[in-house]
Sequence to fold (65 residues):
Amino acid sequence: MATVGHIRAALAEHRLTQPPWWILGQLHDADEAGRPRAEVVATLRGYLDVGDALEPEIDALRSTA
Fold:
């Protein structure tokens, strides 16, 4: 748990929480066209129990870009 706390504290310094960080990680290797939202959600849903909670997170990241 100490590791998770450390990671969350480091993300908070950049005003991020884990879901946006996961999303950014999925977009990092995308080409210039990016990745479709459905693909990002499907990939993350495959190993995270996030359901549709990523949809608002993706929209929030897009609005700050």
Remarks:
- Residues 30 and 36 are 10 Å apart (CA to CA).
